[in-house]
Amino acid sequence: MNPLQIKTQNIFGCMLTIQFFLYFFYLKTDFYIFLGLYFAMSIPLSLSFTGQRFNVKAVFLVILTILLFSLFSISSKEYPTIVGFYNMLYGVSAFISAYALYRINNPIKYIKFVFWTYTIFIVYHFVVLGFSDTDAYNKILANSSRNYLSAIFILVMVLLALTYEKEKENIPLIYPAITFLCCVGLFGRSGIALSALFLFFCLFKQKNYKLMFASFIIIFLAIILNLNTIEILLSEKTNFTNGLSSERTIFIHEYLNHITYNLTDLFFGRKLQDCCEWIILFGNPHNSFIMGHLRYGIIHTIFSLCILLFIIFSRNINLTIFGIVILSRFSVDQLGLFTPFDLVLYYLMFLIYEYKYKRQKYSLT
């Protein structure tokens, strides 16, 4: 790689880092100037496509997908067409960012910087706010809860793991460990569960069975010695109060109930006033896939299922686990398809495409 290419990749890496923080500043302040700058950053990042040869079928598929989403957004019963196009802009921007990141030969250092900066931000609030008032963490972001904070943590950590995967390296255990501890501190049920799952997956993948066993023993002893405190914590301080059921499961049941009775509801999305009192009460369904169906109808569901199948049929257990963690987190909050966090999902898909291409190439030789 010549010096000009190295300099160009460094510029792209810095722009991607800035773009992430621009969107985070928007979440923190609700100032649309940051959102506008986030979208504007996609223009220079799109230069990453220049000089590349693309599969004609893949280009056709991308164009067809955009056209189908555009058509179905017109037929949405719940949202005006402009909202559908606006959210598609998130998807396009995230796609551009994911490809720009994919083109960088050594992306680890940029995502590590994002991870550590975000960690410092969260730890600062742990020090300032403490752990006695969980509602205080719901006020850190302008219009999002503590669950969103833990979701960002998980998605940034998974993105970092994917950049290590691209370099054929294992993510250092300190990153999933810190993510798990901070998710515990943020009191989010889904964050705790998914970060713990990912941590033990990393331990298993790296064949660190002794540390895995030690972790089980430490957690078990900590539970036994602090059983009363944990019971109070689970009942008062976390979202485990309701066990495995929650408002989100009610939202899913409410939205899907009798949806096949009316084909227009199935194909073009439902009108919330006609079906979903609980979702209206809470403001949104806290589920990326329900929100996608509301905006784009069945085309969003088909698109999501195609992504899931693409991940499963990668025949790569590591990438499949990464995909399950990403999509699982999308399913319990309005986090993806389409938002800037789709960057993580699209980056995963680029890695899967590369893995499949190399596997086919080797099988032919």
**What's the alpha carbon Rg, rounded to whole Å?**
21 Å
Biggest β-sheet, characterized?
A: none
**Model regions low in confidence, pLDDT < 50 over at least 5 residues:** 237-244
List SSEs in N-to-C order.
HHHHHHHHHHHHHHHHHH
Shape: globular
Classify the oligomer. single chain
- Determine the mean pLDDT: 85
**Per DSSP, what share of the residues sits in E-state strands of 2 or more residues?**
under 5%
Determine the structural class based on helices, strands and strand pairing.
mainly alpha
Number of E-type strands? 0
Report how far apart the termini are.
27 Å
Helix count from the secondary structure assignment: 18
Please bin the fraction of helical residues: over 70%
Summary, kept brief:
By secondary structure, the protein is mostly helical.
What features would you describe in this structure?
This protein is mainly α. 72% of the residues lie in helices and 0% in strands. It has 18 helices and no strands. Helix 7 (146-166) packs antiparallel against helix 8 (174-185) and helix 17 runs antiparallel to helix 18. Residues 237-244 have low confidence and may be disordered.
Features:
single chain, 365 residues, mainly alpha, 72% helix, globular
Task: Please outline the helices and strands.
Layout lengths: L2 H27 L2 H9 L1 H4 L10 H19 L6 H23 L4 H22 L16 H21 L7 H12 L3 H17 L3 H17 L1 H10 L10 H10 L6 H6 L8 H6 L5 H9 L1 H15 L4 H14 L11 H23 L1
